[in-house]
Amino acid sequence: MPSTTRDVVLLLTHSGDFYTIDLVSQALARRGVRPVRFNTDLFPSAVKLLSRAGDDRLFTETGEQLSAVEVRAVWARKLWPPRMAQDLDDRYRSMCVAESMAALEGFLDALHEARWVNDLQNQRAAENKQRQLRLAARAGLRVPRTLVTNDPAAAREFFSETDGQTVAKLLRPITVSMDAVDSFVYTNRVREEDLVGAEALRHSPMVFQELIPKAFELRVAWVAGESFAGALDVSGTLRGQTDWRRVAPEECRWQKGHVPDQVASCLNALMSELGLVFGAVDLICTPSGEYVFLEVNPSGEWGMLERDLGLPISEAIASALLVPSE
Prior knowledge:
This protein is an alpha+beta fold. Helices cover 27% and strands 25% of the residues. Strands 14-13-12-15-16 form a 5-stranded antiparallel sheet, sandwiched between helices.
């Protein structure tokens, strides 16, 4: 039988997630708590949930088990859709996915007394990119001129307003599949010839944003008011001019970055407004030294900052998880 001591930290992730999840798990274990990994994509195929009134239990694919009353904190790193069996009849697939997600959400609701990093409702609301930009501007951060539209004429007008210095991107990733590398859409420069096909916007709106000149880019792991920053100078690369994620590791290296106090104060105000304990923030520092906010990913990546720069981000996340819940 599981213990009733609240000494478990539940780590929500997926079966293809490594390194950062292990770093946080190790940091928690050093603090004397029991980290339990829950690969959410393996429910219901290999992970079992049992829920009765006041008695909710999880049995992982590795044989670990826990009761909801044992859970002290939850790290909502990744909440993944279920990976259904290949031989499942397509007529029932969507129903099985919906029922699995409903059961999972019911189990997670039983953990409402635990400390969450991040609270799921806050995290989902914070993923709204338009809301992020509004709140960032209100918090005192500079944000790029941005247009979200399905109107071809408006897109062409915006291109003219920015003197052709325009990029395009999506509000959300096309897929959350672990095998979707080929489907990933990066931020791309808009050329005048691209606007010839702007009528296609009637099928889906896009985000158009002014191209911000870069001295370097920053990825900031923000954890409970503390900023851990890595800087990347992509000026010497062709692929990284509009999106640093396209840069090959040998083209440029992460350097330790710095977030000025005023910018850090604005970020703290933004994250407080979003209700986030953790977020991966993307900033640009312009050649004139101005910092521009691009976005915050409530479950963004930071492993390269700890690996390459030795920043103690996993320790900070572990500490944030063990703060007593209110």
